[in-house]
């Protein structure tokens, strides 16, 4: 017994105020030691003393607050999201229908009858029924959230909403039974309208979150469902992965995914371990070498002894790293939240003081208490103080920025990215697949006593039957250079070292310099070039014909065409670029030098990448991480902003806040510029909203603001924020092309990596 950690995927969170309410509720729960809430990923991580709290009690706190706990299974979770969306739509249709009826009644009273007062008892009762139906029908769940928050001493948007809706209800009832001059219909209308607005805002938020979830692919399951287990008798049986235990032996054929972590006990092969290292060049594996589940066995058959299963397996460890980093990701205090923290209790206090003032103050100058004016003042304060425009300020800027980003092939999954980006001062970039293309390619051909075409022709002929990725690079380059080559008459591959072939009457060797030297080949005339090519981080293949070194082929991971320009754009923006990679230091430094990156972290494992990001954050830096592989996923989640290359793995995309469709690195700085501009729009929206809310609340305290005018002012504040967010796009005739985000931008790019067309 002791400290237990539970993580939940939570439904019903619509804004950062919800996340803050959950944190406050748990912080006031006896036995809870720590809690982290991720609004972007809708997750809650709770650490608690299991001697004082049970898992059921921990879950009940969330449920009592009005939130749902989704199934950990992704397929079932998706079904729950769809059910939540359907419930939200149903609530909106019911509340929206009531609002339309009330609006028609109000319009008829004002335009046809020319009066604000209620026209008849029947109309009063109809609007009362609509108010009660809206508040306790589709709006019932809001009351549950407000009540559970209020009893815990938490003042949030739900509490303020219900204060306004109940004030409207009470005002209408006073007009119906106590003060005939009260505009009963309009008081009831307030209850209907603000409840409907809140349902609309939550439904919109749910749509955005659900659509964002659909826009990225689900986590890639790299492990096969079954494995070939070798029994003690030597028989082979196909069994589910879950039936494997440590010590079992499995056989893996060429081209298959390795099902489990283990050690090679028989056979030789090259294995693509990019799942773990991110590096594109396969590693030679033979007896005694460790292999990782999810890696691809390329050339030979391997017999592997299982060393880890279940939660101890590599892929599950990465998944756990992602979950922990995601839930414990450093949070931000939104600008709107800083305001609303004081705004909500402030509005409630002003509303109460307004009633008290108009009831008590007149007595001081010998007049009668003005209850009606006090009621008008309180209701108008609550209506004008309801932070609808404030609540929309950030989402509208996000929608505008998200549309602009989509037109550049950038999917902004998290609103946090817009707010954090202006403060980012370090961008950490993975090497393979991010700065580089991610596939081996021929970078240079060196010839001795012949020409480059002869070297390439000889090498391509020898490698024609090879399945190694380096052989593919040589053959692809030969095809690009229109070099004609023949199939070998005889061929033999030495795993991890090279090939030997008979081409016509020639005996040809193509392979690593060390292997060639071991075969008695004199490499002295190529020693300087070998050292030079290796110094550039290239893999060197020597080409030997009939015992004579014919030439060298340098193979490496090609740097993206816009990488250097993008790094310079980062520097121009005052951001420090950092490269992090699992590759060796020599190769890493060679790539970093070519793109002008000064700080390099090499030989870094997946969990270490996350730790390096954490160290930068602990030093006070705001950090964005750019990557594309499974090995990058924990670091992407840990970073303040995770940016995934869309051509990368599903798990990297799922872990990121921003997804670049395609592999253009320049999108990183595009996203930074869009995020900075969107944050500027957010601040403008907040100023606009406060101009209405602040002045409106002050005016409402006089008790002279009619509920109808209060509602109109609220509508105007929202309209002003809307106009500020989208005026530029509307005037320019540009719309939001989110469909573009699903395909790669291949045209309109300049050499500096910028996009020239929207």
What class would the helix/strand composition place it in?
Answer: alpha+beta
Query: Describe the biggest sheet?
Result: 7 strands, mixed
Radius of gyration: 33 Å
Question: Roughly what fraction of the amino acids lie in strands?
Answer: 15-25%
Unreliable stretches covering 5 or more consecutive residues: 212-221, 325-333, 729-758
Indicate the mean pLDDT.
79
Shape: elongated
Distance between the termini: 58 Å
Number of distinct helices: 25
Query: Which percent bin holds the helix content?
Result: 40-55%
Count of β-strands = 26
Strand numbers in spatial order across the main sheet: 14-26-25-24-15-22-23
Provide a quick synopsis of the model.
The chain has 758 residues and is an alpha+beta fold.
Overview of the structural elements:
This is Cation-translocating P-type ATPase. Residues 271-292 are annotated as: Disordered. GO terms for molecular function: ATP binding; ATP hydrolysis activity; copper ion binding; P-type divalent copper transporter activity. Belongs to the cation transport ATPase (P-type) (TC 3.A.3) family. Type IB subfamily. The longest helix is centred in the N-terminal third of the chain and has 39 residues, at 74-112. The chain is an alpha+beta fold. 50% of the residues lie in helices and 19% in strands. The chain starts with a strand and ends in a 26-residue tail after the last helix. It is elongated.
């Amino acid at each position: 017994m002791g400290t237990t950690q539970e993580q939940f995927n939570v439904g019903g969170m619509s804004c950062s105020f919800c996340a803050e309410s959950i944190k406050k509720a748990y912080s006031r729960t006896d036995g809870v030691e720590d809690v982290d809430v991720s609004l972007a990923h809708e997750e809650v991580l709770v650490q608690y003393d299991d001697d004082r709290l049970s898992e059921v009690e921990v879950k009940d706190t969330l449920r009592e607050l009005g939130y749902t706990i989704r199934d950990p299974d992704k397929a079932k979770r998706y079904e729950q999201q769809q059910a939540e969306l359907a419930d939200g739509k149903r609530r909106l249709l019911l509340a929206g229908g009531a609002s339309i009826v009330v609006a028609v009644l109000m319009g008829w009273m004002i335009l046809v009858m020319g009066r604000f007062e209620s026209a008849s008892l029947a109309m009063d009762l109809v609007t009362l029924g609509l108010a009660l139906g809206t508040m306790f029908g589709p709006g019932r769940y809001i009351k549950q959230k407000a009540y559970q928050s209020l009893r815990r001493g938490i003042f949030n948007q739900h509490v303020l909403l219900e204060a306004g809706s109940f004030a409207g209800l009470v005002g209408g009832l006073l007009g119906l039974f106590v003060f005939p001059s009260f505009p009963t219909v309009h008081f009831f209308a307030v209850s209907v309208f603000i409840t409907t607005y809140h349902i609309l805002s939550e439904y919109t938020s749910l749509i955005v979150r659900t659509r964002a979830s659909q826009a990225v692919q689900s986590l890639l399951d790299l492990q096969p469902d079954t494995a070939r287990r070798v029994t003690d008798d030597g028989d082979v049986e196909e069994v589910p992965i879950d039936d494997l235990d440590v010590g079992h032996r499995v056989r893996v054929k060429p081209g298959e995914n390795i099902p489990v972590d283990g050690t090679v006990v028989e056979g030789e092969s090259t294995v693509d371990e990019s799942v773990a290292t991110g590096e594109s060049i396969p590693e030679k594996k033979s007896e005694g070498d460790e292999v990782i589940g999810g890696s691809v066995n390329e050339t030979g058959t391997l017999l592997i002894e299982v060393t880890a299963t279940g939660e101890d397996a590599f892929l599950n460890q990465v998944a756990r790293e992602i979950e922990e980093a995601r839930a414990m990701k450093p949070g931000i205090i939104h600008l709107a939240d800083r305001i609303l923290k004081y705004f909500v209790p402030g509005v409630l206090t002003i509303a109460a003081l307004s009633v008290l003032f108009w009831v008590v103050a007149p007595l001081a100058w010998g007049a009668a208490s003005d209850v009606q004016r006090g009621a008008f003042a309180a209701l108008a304060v609550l209506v004008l103080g309801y932070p609808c425009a404030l609540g929309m300020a950030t989402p509208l800027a996000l929608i505008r920025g998200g549309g602009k980003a989509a037109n550049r092939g950038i999917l902004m999954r998290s609103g946090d990215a817009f707010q954090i980006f202006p403060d980012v001062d370090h961008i950490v970039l993975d090497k393979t697949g991010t700065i580089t293309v991610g596939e081996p390619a021929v970078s240079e051909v060196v010839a001795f006593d012949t020409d480059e075409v002869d070297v390439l022709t000889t090498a391509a002929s020898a490698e024609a039957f090879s399945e190694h990725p380096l052989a593919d690079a040589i053959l692809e380059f030969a095809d690009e250079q229109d070099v004609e080559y023949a199939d070998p008459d005889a061929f033999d591959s030495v795993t991890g070292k090279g090939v030997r072939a008979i081409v016509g009457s020639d005996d040809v060797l193509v392979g690593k310099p060390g292997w060639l030297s071991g075969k008695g080949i004199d490499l002295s005339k190529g020693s300087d070039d070998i050292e030079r090519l290796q110094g550039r981080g290239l893999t060197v293949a020597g080409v030997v014909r009939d015992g004579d070194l014919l030439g060298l082929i340098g193979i490496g991971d090609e740097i993206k065409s816009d990488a250097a320009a993008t790094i310079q754009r980062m520097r121009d923006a005052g951001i420090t670029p950092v490269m992090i990679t699992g590759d060796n230091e020599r190769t890493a430094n060679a790539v970093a030098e070519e793109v002008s990156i000064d700080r390099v972290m090499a030989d870094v494992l997946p969990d270490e990448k996350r730790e390096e990001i954490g160290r930068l954050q602990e030093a006070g830096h705001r950090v964005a991480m750019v990557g594309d592989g499974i090995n990058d996923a924990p670091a992407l989640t840990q970073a303040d902003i995770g940016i995934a290359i869309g051509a990368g793995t599903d798990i990297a995309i799922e872990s990121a806040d921003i997804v670049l469709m395609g592999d253009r690195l320049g999108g990183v700085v595009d996203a930074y510029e869009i995020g900075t501009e969107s944050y500027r729009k957010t601040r403008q929206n907040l100023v606009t909203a406060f101009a209405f809310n602040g002045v409106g609340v002050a005016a409402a305290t006089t008790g002279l603001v009619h509920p109808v005018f209060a509602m109109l002012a609220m509508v105007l504040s929202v309209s002003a924020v809307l106009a500020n967010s989208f005026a530029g796009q509307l005037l320019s005739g540009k719309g939001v092309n989110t469909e573009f985000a699903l395909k790669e931008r291949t045209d309109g790019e300049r050499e500096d990596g910028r996009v020239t067309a929207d």
